[in-house]
Amino acid sequence: MKTSQLLFVCAVIFAAVLGWRLAPALEAALLGPAGEPRVIAARGDLAASEQVTIDLFEQAQESVVFIATSAQARDPFRRRSVEVPRGTGSGFVWDDRGHVVTNAHVIEGASGATVRLADGRAFPASLVGMDPSNDLAVLRLDVPGARPPALPVGRSSDLLVGQSVFAIGNPFGLDLTLTTGVVSALERELPLDRGRVIDGLIQTDAAINPGNSGGPLLDSAGRLIGVNTAIFSPSGASAGIGFAVPVDTVNRVVPQLIARGTYRPPVIGVRVDPRADAMAARRGLSGALVLAVDPGSPAARAGLEPVRMLQDGTMVPRDRIVAVDGLDVTDSDGLRAALDNYDVGDAVTLRVARDGTTREITLSLAAGAS
Length: 370
Fold this sequence. Notes:
6-stranded antiparallel barrel; globular; 6-stranded antiparallel beta barrel
């Protein structure tokens, strides 16, 4: 060490012992001029998981839209009706024909809606159809020029608790927000207004807040696996418990909304549930297990029998629907999907299994609740 440097160091130590502040000239000579920017440390490559998330968001963001709704209100001064802001939500592009999917509660009660694309363009939207029972709705835009791409569609029947999910939406009006999490649970039920219940929901801890409703829930491949619909929170903000309508339901309902404007699924009058199917599968039984039969329904007239519950709580399976018009049915979702290919009034032949034997019955489909 040079003599001058040694003197500077000794001066610093001496000043520190006595509690003195270095003179500005001495401080500058020792430490360099004040107010200079810090040297930037090298960052290095992004982690592989970070790059995957970035790529997923960049690919999906153009398909996510911001929805602002309005409602008619009475202007007491002008004595006429005026359009006032009602709320905001999210949605995503379904196809290349300008159809946008969102939640029914986002547009329910609105008199108008404006959809803003990721590139900033905004267009008025018209309502194509709505299914409150599954909290789904379809809007349509007339987009001149380049249209945003539709999201790839995945499956929800093979989801596993713990796999990664990604939610994109517009919480509190902040557009194009990405949150991440995992599938926390499957087959959740959520009570809606007027005594309705929506079942089969995906539960996730990806942050979902007001304004996220109607936005997509994606898997790690960037595929649509659900539509974010609600949160469970005493405060009204995200508490790590969010719910999404599974994409298998969306893929059944949306085509009917586009084609007919409403969703009235053809039914046979039986109650089925994926959880009961899982219980039956553990016993080596396949098909859609009949849990209950609606009185006066086609199933009741055909003599289908539901499970029996013994006094000790043991469930005794009776009828299982294993095929519709010759096409195998492995579970409840398969039964619903098969029936969605028909119209109300159509005749279908069911293959029904019970106690190791099968039989075929033919019945006409009734209209389910819209």
